[in-house]
Amino acid sequence: MIKITIIALGKLKEKYLRDAVDEYSKRLSRYCKLNIVELEPVRLNDNPSKKQIDIALEQEGEKILGLIGDNTHVISMCIEGDHLSSEQFSEYINKVSVQNTSNIAFVIGSSFGLCDKIKKMSSKKLSFSKMTFPHQLARVMLLEQVYRAFKITEGSDYHK
Fold first, then answer.
1. Using 50, 70 and 90 to split pLDDT, how confident is the model at 159?
2. Does residue 157 surpass a pLDDT of 90?
3. End-to-end CA gap in the chain
4. For residues 88 and 94, what is the distance between their CA atoms, to the nearest angstrom?
5. How many CB atoms lie within 10 A of CB 15?
6. 140, 109 in Cβ contact below 8 A?
7. pTM (predicted TM-score)
8. 127, 81 in Cβ contact below 8 A?
9. CA distances from residue 68 to 11, 13, 17, 58, 121 in whole angstroms, order as listed
10. CA-CA distance, 10 to 14, in Å (whole number)?
11. What is the dihedral of CA 74, 80, 86, 91, to 10 degrees?
């Protein structure tokens, strides 16, 4: 069974978002072994400088690197990433899992993003949309799309 890890900076604060994560986690248990890791983001003041942000991103990147094992297909969720349809995303996940890469790690950075080191070592960079969404919603959106990808692969009506 494929193992999917979501490494996310920050904890979900809203109950309705935690409930959605729990629901998709339950649904995904049929298709993959899911592990969600929440890391504490580096605390910054209300108006940080670019240098302070860069230092914080590097520190967060080191924490992330410590969680990524060998032979893991890393996908960074970032604004400059590729835009895929749900069908394309499903094909991509299926292709990765068929190529004997049974470990996929999705990385969701803090509200300031991800450090370049993580982006460069990633096999793929993905973006949900050109639109802006609340940072807290990213995890739920990702889980829903991963679930949808498995449903598309099995030919389910869920996607329609």
1. low
2. no
3. 26
4. 10
5. 8
6. no
7. 0.94
8. yes
9. 19, 25, 25, 15, 11
10. 12
11. -40
Domain extent at residue 42: 3-159
Whether the CB-CB separation of 75 and 104 falls below 8 Å is answered with: yes
Q: Three-state SS across the chain?
A: CCEEEEEEECCCCCHHHHHHHHHHHHHHCCCCEEEEEEECCCCCCCCCCHHHHHHHHHHHHHHHHCCCCCCCEEEEEEEEEECCCHHHHHHHHHHHHHCCCCEEEEEECECCECCHHHHHHCCEEECCCCCCCCHHHHHHHHHHHHHHHHHHHHCCHHHC
Asked if 141 and 131 touch (Cβ cutoff 8 Å), the reply is: no
What value does the mean pLDDT take over residues 101-114?
A: 91
Question: Total domain count for the chain?
Answer: 1
Q: CA 71 to CA 63: how far, in whole Å? A: 18
CATH number of 33's domain: 3.40.1280.10
As given in the structure block, the two tokens for residue 59 are 């520190």
Exposed, middle or buried, 104 (CB in 10 Å: 0-12/13-18/19+)? Answer: buried
Q: How far is CA 34 from CA 17, 20, 26, 37, in A?
A: 17, 15, 9, 10
pLDDT at 135 over 90: no
